[in-house]
Every structure is written in C-alpha cells, then in structure tokens.
Amino acid sequence: QVQLVESGGGLVQAGGSLRLSCAASGNIFSFNPMGWYRQAPGKQRELVATITRSGSTNYADSVKGRFTISRNAGKNAMYLQMSSLEPEDTAVYYCSAYQAGNAYWGQGTQVTVSS
User: How far is CA 94 from the centre of its chain?
Assistant: First the structure.
C-alpha cells in the first residue's frame, strides 16, 4: 500500500517562504509522475507542480518563478519550495503519486498566507 505523508505547512506572512515535504512509502522512481496539488476553500483542487521520473517539471502559471518542485531519491521524498507567497496561495496542499494507473494522495497540509 502506497502511503504519502506531507509536512511543512503553516502560517506565513505574504512574501515569505515555506518548504513542503512529501515522504513516500516506496521508491519514488516507481511513481510517474509525482506532484503537488492544492485546494482552497470553496474551490476545486488544482495542479501546482509535477515532476516526472526523468526529472521533467511542470508548473501552474500562477506559481511559475515562485515555487520549485524537487525530490531526494535517497530519502524517498519530494519537496515544494514556495517563495514570495501570496494570500492567494492559501490552501490545503496535497502530495500525489501515480503508479500502474493508480493515483495516490496524501492527507494534505494546510498553508495559510496572511496579508
């Protein structure tokens, strides 16, 4: 059973930074792709960033230049470095991973950006 556990969320002022972590129960190279999604109150879950097995990355236009997705194979972990945070970034952030046609999700971590 694949397990994904997010951490690193919290309250930060606008303009600040946070780094989210996603710990996976298996070899992260068995997933393709992995990614971060977010869901704000009253809104649909949306893509933030993805990273493929080969290392290719993709970002939502709203976070390009501010967020960076990365991974550490030795730790079976994926990260989302978030900078220049804006109140509009406030949401629950979810880690996702795709394997053999199945999508797996973490429980989410809350990020709140105050103005």
Answer: 6
DSSP string for the chain:
---EEEE--EEEETT--EEEEEEESS-GGGSS-EEEEEE-TTS--EEEEEE-TT--EEE-TTTTTTEEEEEEGGGTEEEEEE-S--GGG-EEEEEEEEETTEEEE---EEEEEE-
pLDDT tens digits along 62-94: 999 999 999 999 999 999 999 999 999 999 999
Q: What angle do CA 32, 110, 12 make, to 5 degrees?
A: 115
Q: Are 38 and 93 in contact (CB under 8 A)?
A: yes
pLDDT at 107: 97
